[in-house]
Amino acid sequence: VIDKNNICVIGGAGHVGAPLGLVLSSKGYNVTLIDKNKKNIQSINCGQMPFLEEGSSKLLKKMIYKKKIFATEKLNEVKKSKYIIVCIGTPINNQLNP
């Protein structure tokens, strides 16, 4: 069953998708982050951002506790969402510049 409040973010465990999903979850949406990076998925589901994003760890833990956000590598989760957002990664250098 598709829920109008479900949003799926593909590429969701990266530098663009994770913060976007976190903000959407804080606004009341149920967010599924789909990514192939198992390490980032595990970090997010444990309440830790896999990279530095100021102020995000506390909010992530709160949204996980409220069951408003979770990360997975299972692409079939997209079927449960009304809205799908695809985030394309931007390559960065050692100084974290695009």
UniProtKB/TrEMBL annotation:
Domain UDP-glucose/GDP-mannose dehydrogenase N-terminal: 6-94
Gene Ontology terms: biological process: polysaccharide biosynthetic process
InterPro entries assigned: NAD(P)-bd_dom_sf, UDP-Glc/GDP-Man_DH_N, UDP_ManNAc/GlcNAc_DH
GO molecular function: NAD binding; oxidoreductase activity, acting on the CH-CH group of donors, NAD or NADP as acceptor; oxidoreductase activity, acting on the CH-OH group of donors, NAD or NADP as acceptor
Signal sequence, renumbered to the chain: none
Family label: Belongs to the UDP-glucose/GDP-mannose dehydrogenase family.
Protein name in UniProt: UDP-glucose/GDP-mannose dehydrogenase N-terminal domain-containing protein
Annotated organism of origin: marine metagenome
